[in-house]
Amino acid sequence: MNTKITSIACGVVLTLATTVAPAATSTTTTNFNATDSLFGLSAGFNINGDTRSVLGNTLGIEYGASANTGTVNAGVNGSIRATYDDVINGSSTNVALNYLGGLSSLSSAFGANAFVDAFVNVTIPIPFLPDFPINATVNILDEGFFLAPSRTFNANLGVGVSDTDQDTAAAPAVTIVPVPVLDDVAAGVDLDIRQTIRLTPNSLDGILRGVNRSNGNVVAQGFGIGASDFTSVALAGLDAGIWDFSILDIDLFGLFRNDVSMVINPFITLPVFSDFRPGTLATIPLFGQEFGLDFNTLTRNNVFSILVTPIPAAIWLFGTALLGFIGMSRRRIVA
Length: 335
Known about the structure:
Strand content: over 45%
Structural class: mainly beta
Number of helices: 3
Distance between the termini: 16 Å
Oligomer: single chain
């Protein structure tokens, strides 16, 4: 009998002392944008070289490419969903934050200039005539290029996206040296400028800040959301009242990479021989760099509210008195 009463009393006290509120959710949008130099802190590129190391000093090309301006534009859209107890008893709670990716975009644009010169240093045997030495260099291409890779994607933290574009110029054979009796020595080139851009939105951080609507007390806790798209924020020191929570200084760290290369496909026409086309003679890396984009910082005010209701002293007094009454009853029965 007494055991039953004791169990009931304890149950009453625990029920009054602990009220479990159903989890609530609130979602706020996060639209991050960045427009930066395509070359980061670099001034662009200016590359010059030749293929003498490939073909010796007999025939080949000299080349150059340069660019000093260009932009990258990124828009990473999504939202932060907060899951919390909107009514709590006590002074502490946990808030779960999830990042939900949305439709986003990545693009860049830049212009480059490239040139190709052909050089020949050979001696052509001519029947019944003295051998004909050829030592000459002639420009076969000097042209501007424009590249603008662009794509849309669904943003996920820790997941990279990329796109590639290329611009091609084809220069017809240009006479290097006229050869008496025989065909002229001529050269041409097919030239590709290729660009690949890549963006990885790695992480998101900010501050979860709450203000007591009645007395102005403040609690604040920093957080970071990584590749799991989830974090839990522990809050303590909450006194009685309605707390309004905002998410401040929301920053997105996105790592961007830009790679530019030039692919050279030359051909040369020599007397007696048909066109000599070696295929891709060289792939020249022009630029390659990785850096963080400067996204805007966001603040979202009054995202959600929590009502803090500490356990009233009267409940504890009632429970104490009830347990005391049970104790007295047990002593009487024993007596």
